[in-house]
Amino acid sequence: MGKISSLSKSIAILASVVMLVISSLVFSSPAEAKNYQVTMGAGGLQYNPKKVTVQPGDTVTFKNGMLPPHNVMFNPGKSPAPKISKKLSHTKLAMKPGESFDINIPDDAKPGDYEFFCVPHRGAGMVGHIIVE
Ligand SMILES: [Cu+2]
Question: Whole-prediction pTM value?
Answer without folding.
Answer: 0.77
